[in-house]
Amino acid sequence: MGRSRGGIMTLFCLLLLSYFWWASQLQFLNPNRRSNVHNHNNIFILAGQSNMAGRGGVVNNTWDGVVPPKSQSNPSIFRLSASLKWEEAREALHADIDVNKTCGVGPAMAFANTILEREAGIGGVGLVPCAVGGTQISEWARGSRLYEDMLRRARVSVKGRGGGGGEIRGILWYQGERDTVTEEDAESYKDNFEKLIIDLRSDLRSPLLPVIQVVLASGQGPFMEKVREAQMRIDLPNVIFVDAKGLLLEPDRLHLSTPAQVCLGEMLAEAFLHRFSSPIHNNAPTRSSLFSF
């Protein structure tokens, strides 16, 4: 009888330990992350120059550190770091990518937070920062360092290195201020941008990959209107634009202020949800997994 009772107690203890172990695993998956397990993670490539990298709140090469509520970190928003590992995203999002400049608030966090607010079941959002300040469109051509870095980071993001992975849902592009300096650059902008998108879609095996570009709010030279016109005349499928003209600029009259970046992020999100909220099935690289860090 004693041996039988001892065996029962041993079995009971083992069952109890098993229960507490499983309970601890369930607690690890907090409510904000649980939906990610059952949904494709949504990856967005962030490319262009300084206004995509983010200069909101940067004055005299110093960021004021102010992060508005719409740009705050969120357990369901991740970024691919310079070391190609997924981590929880927070401003300044491009700090380890656009390393030769001071980065501040950009549009991407407001974009991602708006997406999550509007589409509760969308799962995690993965941001892949690639923007570098002061760059011309010609510096992003296939074979260039910027292009190859962007392509490498895009490919890694879907392979899941470092625990990430998902589906590339689109490219957010904000660039062109540097191309307003000479008339020749401004006039060649349309052809250069269209070639960039065609090449990138080909290399990613994603012929209909959505692209949302930002039409310039400012420029470094006298040919801003020529570049703006070129941006609005891009003639490729699934390429749309939002217009940043009129958004509040920093004192340098070149970079968007923090409130303007938040507004731009919301504009980008509205454009994406209006045109591309359903997945684009076009043989794009994809892997479904949970973002982790």
List its salient traits.
disordered C terminus; seven-stranded mixed β-sheet; disordered N terminus; single chain; 9 strands; 9 helices; two-stranded antiparallel ribbon; 37% helix; alpha/beta; 293 residues; 14% strand
Count of distinct strands: 9
Percent helix: 25-40%
Helix-strand string: HHEHEEEEHEHEHHEHEH
What's the overall average pLDDT, rounded?
85
Helix/strand class = alpha/beta
**Backbone CA Rg:** 22 Å
Main sheet makeup: 7 strands, mixed
Measured by DSSP, the beta-strand proportion falls in 5-15%
Distance between the termini: 52 Å
**Uncertain stretches of 5 or more adjacent residues:** 1-6, 9-40, 280-293
> Helical segment tally?
9
User: Based on CA inertia axes, which overall geometry fits?
Assistant: globular
In the sheet with the most strands, the strands line up as 5-4-6-1-7-8-9
Q: What is the topological layout?
A:
Elements: H1 2-28, H2 31-34, E1 42-48, H3 50-53, E2 58-59, E3 62-63, E4 77-80, E5 86-88, H4 108-118, E6 125-129, H5 145-159, E7 167-174, H6 183-187, H7 189-203, E8 211-215, H8 224-232, E9 239-243, H9 258-276
Parallel strand pairs: 1-6, 1-7, 4-6, 7-8, 8-9
Antiparallel strand pairs: 2-3, 4-5
Helix pairs in contact: 4-9
Describe the protein's architecture and organization.
This protein has helices spanning 2-28, 31-34, 50-53, 108-118, 145-159, 183-187, 189-203, 224-232, 258-276; strands at residues 42-48, 58-59, 62-63, 77-80, 86-88, 125-129, 167-174, 211-215, 239-243. Strand 4 and strand 5 (86-88) form a beta hairpin. The protein has 293 residues and is an alpha/beta fold. A seven-stranded mixed beta sheet has the order 5-4-6-1-7-8-9, with helices on both faces. The chain has a two-stranded antiparallel sheet with strand order 2-3. Helix 4 (108-118) packs across helix 9 (258-276). The chain has nine helices and nine strands. 37% of the residues lie in helices and 14% in strands. Mean pLDDT is 85; it is low at 1-6, 9-40 and 280-293.
